[in-house]
Design brief:
This protein has six helices and six strands, in the order ααβααββββαβα. The chain has 166 residues and is an alpha+beta fold. A hairpin with a 5-residue loop joins strand 4 and strand 5. It binds zinc ion (ZN) (3 copies).
C-alpha cells in the first residue's frame, strides 16, 4: 500500500466507513491526475475506468480525500470547486487568466510572511488561505495586441484605466 492509500484507509476507518474497490479506484485516478480537477472532471475520468461508479460516490469520496488531507480544494472564480494534490505537496497560490483560463502556480515566501504578519496583527489564528490573482496571461496579452485595437478583443477583466484629465 502506498502512503496515500494508508492515509486514506486510516481516515475512512475513523469515519466508520469501509474500504471499497470504487473508493480505491477514485483515489487512484485522483493521484494519477496532475493539476487541478473539478468533481465533474474526476467523475469523467473514473467512469472511463469503471462506468458503474456513480457521481455521488465520486463527490463524496472527493470530500473524504479533502478531509484526509490528500486533496486541497481550490477555487478559480468559475463557481466550481477544483481539487489538487495536497499530501506532501508544497503550498502554492494561483494566478488565473480571465481570457483563456490558464492557471499559473507560484510560491512567494514574502507574500506568505506578509499574510502571517497580518493575521498576527489582528490576533487571528490562520489555519489556511486561498490566494487567487485574476488577470490576463502573457499569451493572451500578446494575442490581444495583435488583433485590431477597436476594443472588441480587450480583456474582460482589467485594471481601470486612469485618465489624467478626469
Ligand atoms: Zn500562499
Ligand atoms: Zn490567457
Ligand atoms: Zn495548484
Amino acid at each position: 500500500m502506498t502512503e496515500e492509500q494508508e492515509v486514506f484507509l486510516k481516515h475512512i476507518q475513523q469515519q466508520g466507513l469501509k474500504r471499497t474497490a470504487q473508493r480505491d479506484l477514485i483515489l487512484d485516478v485522483f493521484l494519477r491526475t496532475e493539476g487541478h480537477v473539478s468533481g465533474e472532471d474526476l467523475y469523467r475520468l473514473v467512469r472511463e475506468q469503471d462506468p458503474t461508479v456513480g457521481q455521488t460516490t465520486v463527490y463524496r469520496t472527493l470530500r473524504l480525500l479533502t478531509d484526509a488531507g490528500l486533496a486541497r480544494e481550490v477555487r478559480f472564480g468559475d463557481g466550481r470547486a477544483h481539487y489538487e494534490h495536497h499530501y506532501k505537496h508544497q503550498h502554492h497560490d494561483h494566478m488565473i487568466c480571465s481570457e483563456c483560463g490558464k492557471i499559473i502556480e507560484f510560491y512567494s515566501p514574502e507574500l506568505e510572511a506578509i499574510q502571517d504578519a497580518m493575521a498576527a496583527k489582528h490576533k487571528f489564528e490562520l489555519t489556511e488561505h486561498l490566494l487567487r490573482m485574476i488577470g490576463v496571461c502573457a499569451d493572451c496579452r500578446r494575442a490581444g495586441h495583435e488583433k485590431k485595437p477597436d476594443g472588441a478583443n480587450r480583456p474582460k477583466v482589467r485594471a481601470a484605466t486612469r485618465h489624467s484629465n478626469s
